[in-house]
Amino acid sequence: MSGGKKIYGLYNDDDILKQGASVLVNNGVNISTTYSPFPIHGIEKIIGMKWTRLAIVAFMFGITGTMLALLGMGYFMIMDWPMNIGGKPSFDLYQNLPAFIPVTFEFTVLCAAHCMAITYLIRNKTFPGSKARNPHPRTTDDHFAIEVLMDDNLKYSDDKIHMMLKETGTVETFEK
Amino acid sequence: MHKESAIRQPLILGDKTYHQITEDVCAPVEGKANRMWYIAFTISAIAALWGLGCIMYTIGRGIGVWGLNTTVGWAWDITNFVWWVGIGHAGTLISAVLLLFRQKWRMAINRSAEAMTIFAVIMAALFPGIHMGRIWMAYWVLPLPNQYGSLWVNFNSPLLWDVFAISTYFSVSLVFWYIGLIPDFATIRDRAKRAIPKKIYGTLAFGWTGDAKAWIRFEEVSLVLAGLATPLVFSVHSIVSMDFATSVIPGWHTTIFPPYFVAGAVFSGFAMVQTLLIIARKVVNMQAYITPKHIEYMNIVIIITGSMVGVAYLTELFISWYSGVEYEQYAFINRFSGPYWWAYWSMMTCNVITPQLYWIKKIRTSLMASFVISIFVNIGMWFERFVIIVTSLHRDYIPSNWSMFHPTFVDIGIFIGTIGIFFTLFLLYARTFPILALNELKSILKASGNNYKNENNQNN
Q: Whole-angstrom distance between the N-terminal and C-terminal Cα of chain A?
């Protein structure tokens, strides 16, 4: 986030915010983001926000987990110390594979879930002890906010943005 | 906005607004506990301390203080382990599978069910740990380089698969739970007036902002975690069942075990959720959110999984006769007519007969009946594991080996202790965590809230 001036419009209903956001966008205002106590479905299309690629990340981590598990078991059980346990084949990974499937699956899920969760926290910049960065304490309760970054809207004055926000039915507007 | 059929019953009763939901869910966290809570907490804490004492005694003296003998080498410890893991199956099933199926009724119960899952899996993991005897060697179950050759753990063994399954299940459930909790902790943080709670919930909320991109990521992560956790739920109890099914003990060596164990786990897990939530909704005043309709939905899951378990019991009996293997046949005749007949028939009554009462709508929608039946199911599922483990072992191939299992005070103490620890943790959770998923409930208020539904119906 840049250090420029930000103007916020606070709403008390998600549907009013969505309508308001459409009106503002149609008037050529760039909305940087919105703040809400729960996900507002469809808002990303209105304000032109890209969808996240976290699912792809999870897949990559999952594949890495699969490979690591197979490599590990191949090394432990086939290469380093082959053991004859109940006559189960210990000569190559392929023959012993059925017995290795459960651990491969578990390790895939383990890597995909944890690494995706860590990526999620890093991308959101949320860590233990991070400071609250929402503009108004009630945006985690029952209020909804539109954030307009003045650096992105050089053709409008501050007062004009305030006025346009108010026209869409805000409870209040404020600057930070 | 998501449209919902007018004839579908509302999931949020009363005249609720977004703010009212916040108020209701934060009330137990911000207010003082009532007398009931303190009484329950004291009883649980005493049981927990007694259990911890017995665990210390076991670790100090070795597992010879249990009632195990050379014939019955697994008894209450593994019974309790499987029972607790099974109970731990409802939470992730509710949040993951029901999320994938877009079942909105999950939202009032998923948080508590997941908390229950986590506490139950901790209780489960305790038992194999102390059964090792020398618990300080517990890290030997991991494939770590060592001075013995290197001698690795055996990846062909279901017991090792279990190590991976349980630890993955526990840690992924914990992450799933916590990711959902972050926005709700932020709500408590922003409402907190005193400095210390503000600091604590601020730390727990990880600086959550609730901006549009964070919510997009939140929903994506929840969906992917649900997708990952769904096969995980099924795999964990399948692998637990393979601890038995891949052995050569009559009564254990059956291919029906994985699906039968998974159905049993969901069955017992939902029963425990019922037991906890029917009380909790009263104690923390959540009747508007955990409605009789929610209880009925859970009862429907119980009747389905209960019937699956019933079919599995009968299939097992039939197959043991049809196999023509004498040892297999004897194992089952011994179950229902041997010295442990009372355990078998308790299991049958509690698991197969009682849940069938839910076909009657009056019973299915009655809170009192649901509570009583849920207790029956909990007891029945404990007996199921006892029957499978102890009656299969106590009379195996050589009659001169036959023996009986008698629990000692340590066996009983540890079992009661784990129930105590479980309830202590759950009671602490109910006072310090948002016990309903605030953000999810708010997102369904307009589609499933009573007042909004009435309004929509009038407009149409």
A: 13
B51 vs B93, more confident? B51
Is residue B232 within 8 A of residue B91, CB to CB? The reply is no
Give Cβ neighbours of residue A56 (< 8 Å, ≥ 6 apart). none
Decide if A133 is inside a domain. no
Contact A173, A162 (CB under 8 A): yes
Residues in chain A with CB shorter than 8 Å from the CB of B164 are 102-103, 106-107, 110
Give contacts of A 35-54 with B, CB under 8 A: 35-41, 43-44, 47, 49, 51-52, 54
Containing domain of residue A28, as a range? 6-50+138-175
For tokens 């059956």, the residue is: B254
Which CATH number does B18-141+150-449 carry?
1.20.1630.10
Q: How many domains does chain A have?
A: 2
Q: How far is A93 from chain B (nearest CA, A)?
A: 12
Closest CA to B130 of B413, B403, B392, B383: B413
Q: Identify whether A131 is part of a domain.
A: no
Over residues A131-143, the pLDDT tens digits come to: 888 888 888 888 8
B35 contact partners, CB below 8 Å, separation of at least 6: none
